[in-house]
Amino acid sequence: MTPELNRRQFIQGLGVTAATIAVGNSVFTLAGCSPATTTPTTPTTPTKPPATTIPTYKNFLIPALAKNTSSDPTKATFELIAQKGKVEFFSGKQTDTFGYNGSYLGPTIRVKKGQEVNIKVKNQLDETITTHWHGALLPGEMDGGPHQIISAGGEWNPHFVIEQPAATLWYHTHTMGQTGQQVYKGLAGLLIIDDEVSAGLNIPKDYGMNDIPLVIQDRRFAADGSLQYMTKPEDAMGMQGDTILVNGFVNSVLEVSTVKMRFRILNASNARVYNLILSDDSNFTQIASDAGFLQSPVELNALKLSPGERAEIIIDFSKHAVGDTITLKSQTNNTINIMDFSVINKANDATTIPNTLTTITKIPESAAVKTRTFTMSGIGPLSHINNLQMNRQTGMDTIHESVKLGDTEIWEVISAAAGGMSHPFHVHGMHFQVLDINGNPPPANHQGWKDTVLVETTNKVRIIAVFKYKGLFMLHCHNLEHEDAGMMLQYECK
Ligand code: C2O
Ligand code: CU
Ligand code: CU
Asked: Is 2.40.110.10 the CATH classification of the domain at 365-493?
């Protein structure tokens, strides 16, 4: 049995014998495919029938679906257990990691709009964590930010109702000052919301088949396989690694048919901004941004994605021949390979991309009752917003901004020249629309609902939002080293 096989079995939690299956055969028929189960925990034979089947891939990992233990369809109940793990990212080398319900990353939680969600988060680590639902609209106490600490050995039971449209969200630890190292070790996973719109579209939507998550992360490993975190002076600017992981797997190759494939891309890297392109320079179609579908699909040949941001794209492999390999790359000042797509067979495609995906009602600027300015600046331990830092001077009790429930506000977000960095600005407890970037309308793929926006050096980005949730929420740079250093404030909505 190969090490890869062990790894796949661990992630998908199955006792499988023949795990090497060509996915291309299984995009539209499962013939020849030995279905994987979705039990997220231990590699034993499942006792209950799986909720869904995910094919097993040779050089690609699909995060398992978290098991919903509620029999009431209006509810969804999950358990996440933060735990230590060991992963063989490289043959013959064990890497110490953290994961939820497994050794690295966590299962994909899938819920429907309207459902009441209950999640038991258990912390089996030796250190305090939190678990934040990034992009979820819910009351402050359920948000999982730095205030909802889960002590070592403890547990936390958030419950909330999904009141937002279909989207690809994620969850991750958000411990004050420790988010960077804990996410780096693996404490993150996807949270997918479905609704009547997502169900009604004839786009690719079979999870693990033609609807594939891509959780992209960069990591640095020592020769012995151990993860290297903050080992170089420049890491204080934001931890970047030279090894790309997709869904926690190195050198990913996904075998595809000549059909349209949907990818839910999450930049779960601590600090790296990707500019995604395909090696043949062909176009792809973005259908969703952070918080849901775009009104209309947007054709792109490059997609910039900063830490915390999500994009759903569709790549049409029908223009390729069997035998082709297309590489997903990131092209910034250097070019790095993210993963390969290997076209292995021809297939018919019944999916379509409609001209209209959903309706997005613009929030009129005139609705705003207040404008606030947030300037991100400083390097390393001096990282701050408006010359203030969460925690560092004053502890976690200082509330920096107060917002009135129901109000619409415009926030001007500036990346100061000092420090010379781009900052992915993220806000909890609301979704926003980008009004303009340096006075210009945002690109079409930034005209939907968002919760994170990259503010490039010296730029001013204006966002508008309606504040509908009560409680204490964070606003921060999603470069996790900046965040941990203090580039984070909190607002109260009441
Ligand atoms: Cu993705 Cu405040 O977090
Ligand atoms: Cu968040
Ligand atoms: Cu930053």
From this structure: no
